[in-house]
C-alpha cells in the first residue's frame, strides 16, 4: 500500500452516482477505484477541490446502494475520454457503510486473484 494510505485501494468499474450538497439531481458516473477512505470517479465537468459530494455506490454482489459523503481532494482532465477524474476523500462514514465498502473491495480483490490464477493456468 502506498505511503499515506490508510486503506487498501482497488481498481474498479462500478456504477455510481453523486450530487453536490444543495443539488437534487444525481449525476450518473463510474468509479475508477475505491477504498474505505475514498474513491476516484468520472465527472463531465470540473468539480472544485473542497466541494462536498454525496456518493451513491451500487454493491455488485448484493445490488444495494451504499450512500456516503466525501469531498474533492483533486481532479484532472482525462486523457482518453471527455471528462475529469475526480478524487474524493470520504468523511463521517457510518460503520455499516465502511463495512459494505470493505466487502466490495474484498470481492474485487478476490475476483482479481481468480483471474490471475486462470491467466497463469492458460500459459
From TrEMBL:
Signal peptide: none annotated. Gene3D superfamilies: predicted glycosyltransferase like domains. Residues 5-104 form the PilZ domain. One of its GO terms (molecular function) is cyclic-di-GMP binding. This is PilZ domain-containing protein. The lineage of its organism: Bacteria, Pseudomonadati, Candidatus Omnitrophota, Candidatus Danuiimicrobium.
Amino acid at each position: 500500500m502506498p505511503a499515506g494510505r490508510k486503506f487498501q485501494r482497488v481498481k474498479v468499474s462500478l456504477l455510481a452516482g453523486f450530487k453536490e450538497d444543495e443539488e437534487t439531481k444525481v449525476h450518473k458516473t463510474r468509479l475508477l477505484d475505491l477504498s474505505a477512505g475514498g474513491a476516484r470517479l468520472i465527472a463531465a465537468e470540473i468539480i472544485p477541490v473542497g466541494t462536498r459530494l454525496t456518493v451513491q455506490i451500487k454493491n455488485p454482489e448484493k445490488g444495494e446502494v451504499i450512500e456516503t459523503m466525501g469531498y474533492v481532494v483533486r481532479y484532472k482532465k482525462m486523457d482518453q475520454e471527455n471528462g475529469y477524474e475526480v478524487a474524493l476523500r470520504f468523511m463521517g462514514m457510518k460503520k455499516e457503510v465502511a463495512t459494505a465498502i470493505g466487502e466490495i473491495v474484498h470481492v474485487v480483490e478476490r475476483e482479481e486473484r481468480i483471474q490471475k490464477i486462470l491467466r497463469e493456468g492458460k500459459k
